């Protein structure tokens, strides 16, 4: 959604692609020369727009892209992206042809998937690269370390399961790398290293080894191997002293579409859950829970206008929120409202970031940004989707 009818709405997301590029560059400075960076752009680039983010990240030196589903990978290919794309999540039989058709790589943790992908690859006449996914302690999806000596695994890694499958990588995923204190990453890493050593001695180790998400990339250099898979940090949303100097790339903005001065005792919104205690000006802002402005924020969140915080009052509706400002503030129709992001104010810079949203909603920044609805147009700064950005992985990687 970059042009046309959907782009006129006075509620929009602004993505600073220069921030994405600078986040990629900052993370790359922490990596050894032999370690590449995969930009994880699943869920439409964590709500930022997968194609635009992918291009910015590749331009800044990312070598690969990661998605959750073959459909997401296909969408990148349809947009002209030629860089290697790995489907990180499990795939179903009806999706296997897509993996081959669009030249994607897939994570594999069972014999049926390996066999089905091989059949799809043969049908398309196109070799599929597969990454063996180990469950070293996440407990969600993957081959257990003790299952690695199964005949199909050895055959896969020897390249003998099918001429249509290329053993491309060995991977695992951490469950607690962002936890303070972290109860599990050390054990998971030990289990992964154990498998790596076993495969190395039998000559079956694939060339690409990867385990680290953003948190592990920042906190544990020992988890980097040949590739790190960075999502949250790409978007500047990993709040941790281990990874300073990140820039959030996304701002969510709107404009006041209606304003009225009301007396004390005036009820606002569904359920009349808010009543003014003094004369006030009530602003209507055209964003609601159908856009991902969650109803749980009713009467308990704030927005920024002219660099100051003002409360969201009354219920969040499907398509509107209401904000209270002083009657004499001069704020009226057309005024810009920052729903998520920073503004310069009279007292300096003020921010309502994804972290603050997440704390209020008892969730994590991932859910906040991926929850911004498809109805909200995305606009780009710092070289847009049609700018001079890369569709390829850099040749040196
Ligand atoms: C989403 C995902 C990542 C990226 O995680 P962040 O915490 O956003 O860096 C890495 N690896 C896998 C397997 C994932 O699913």
TrEMBL record:
GO terms for biological process: D-alanine biosynthetic process. Residues 249-381 form the Alanine racemase C-terminal domain. It catalyses: L-alanine = D-alanine. GO terms for cellular component: cytosol. Residues 378-397 are annotated as: Disordered. The modification N6-(pyridoxal phosphate)lysine is found at residue 42. Substrate binds at residues 140, 318. GO terms for molecular function: alanine racemase activity; pyridoxal phosphate binding. Its EC number is 5.1.1.1. It comes from the Bacteria. Keywords: Isomerase, Pyridoxal phosphate. Its cofactor is pyridoxal 5'-phosphate. Pathway: Amino-acid biosynthesis; D-alanine biosynthesis; D-alanine from L-alanine: step 1/1. PANTHER family: ALANINE RACEMASE, ALANINE RACEMASE, CATABOLIC-RELATED. Catalyzes the interconversion of L-alanine and D-alanine. May also act on other amino acids. Belongs to the alanine racemase family. This is Alanine racemase.
């Amino acid at each position: 959604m970059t042009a046309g009818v959907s782009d006129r709405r006075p509620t929009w997301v602004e993505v600073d692609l220069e921030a994405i590029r600078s986040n990629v560059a900052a993370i790359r400075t922490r990596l050894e020369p032999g370690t590449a960076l995969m930009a994880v752009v699943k869920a439409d680039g964590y709500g930022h727009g997968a194609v635009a983010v992918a291009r910015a990240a590749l331009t800044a030196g990312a070598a690969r892209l990661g998605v959750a589903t073959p459909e997401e990978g296909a969408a990148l290919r349809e947009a002209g992206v030629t860089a290697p794309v790995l489907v990180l999540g499990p795939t179903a039989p009806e999706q296997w042809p897509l993996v081959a058709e669009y030249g994607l790589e897939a994570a594999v943790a069972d014999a049926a998937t390996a066999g089905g992908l091989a059949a799809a690859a043969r049908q398309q006449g196109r070799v599929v690269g597969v990454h063996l996914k180990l469950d070293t302690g996440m407990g969600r999806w993957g081959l257990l370390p003790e299952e690695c000596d199964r005949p199909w695994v050895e055959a896969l890694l020897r390249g003998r399961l099918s001429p249509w499958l290329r053993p491309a990588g060995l991977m695992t995923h951490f469950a607690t790398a962002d936890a303070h204190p972290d109860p599990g990453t050390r054990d998971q890493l030990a289990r992964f290293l154990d498998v790596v050593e076993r495969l190395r001695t039998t000559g079956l180790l694939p060339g690409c080894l990867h385990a680290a998400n953003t948190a592990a990339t920042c906190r544990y250099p020992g988890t980097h191997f040949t590739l790190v898979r960075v999502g949250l940090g790409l978007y500047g949303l990993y709040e941790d002293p281990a990874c300073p100097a990140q820039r959030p790339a996304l701002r969510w903005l709107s404009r006041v579409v209606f304003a009225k001065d009301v007396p004390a005792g005036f009820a606002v919104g569904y359920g009349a859950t808010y009543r003014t205690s003094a004369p006030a000006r009530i602003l209507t802002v055209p964003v609601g829970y159908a856009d991902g402005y969650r109803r749980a924020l009713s009467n308990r969140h704030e927005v920024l206008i002219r660099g100051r915080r003002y409360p969201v009052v009354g219920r969040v509706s499907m398509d509107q929120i209401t904000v209270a400002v002083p009657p004499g503030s001069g704020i009226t129709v057309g005024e810009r409202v920052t729903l998520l992001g920073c503004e310069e104010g009279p007292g300096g810079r003020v921010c309502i970031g994804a972290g603050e949203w997440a704390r209020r909603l008892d969730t994590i920044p991932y859910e906040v940004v991926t929850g911004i609805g498809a109805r909200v147009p995305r606009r780009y700064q710092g070289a847009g989707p049609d700018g001079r950005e890369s569709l390829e992985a850099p040749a040196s990687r």
